Amino acid sequence: MASRAAATPPYPSAARIADSPCYPQYTASLKCLEENGSEDKSKCQEHFDVYKECKKKEREARLERNKSRSFFS
């Protein structure tokens, strides 16, 4: 039986949230919701904003990486 070890991709994958560089911000926002109750989300707004900014930077980096890639090459 052949080994199913996955080859390391040429760039970081965020197919799973745990693989994302924004995972710490994601978990911090969830922890805040758990600690403060999900009814008062305003207490966690700072965590949401930090996570949103991280995801924005992650997306921009992915788009920049993909600029050099082509479907036809």
TrEMBL record:
It comes from the Eukaryota. It holds the Pfam family CHCH. Keywords: Disulfide bond. InterPro entries: CHCH, Cys_alpha_HP_mot_SF. This is Cytochrome c oxidase-assembly factor COX23, mitochondrial isoform X2. Residues 22-57 form the CHCH domain. Coiled coil: none annotated. SUPFAM superfamilies: Cysteine alpha-hairpin motif. The gene is LOC18614532. It comes from Theobroma cacao (Cacao). The keyword Disulfide bond applies.
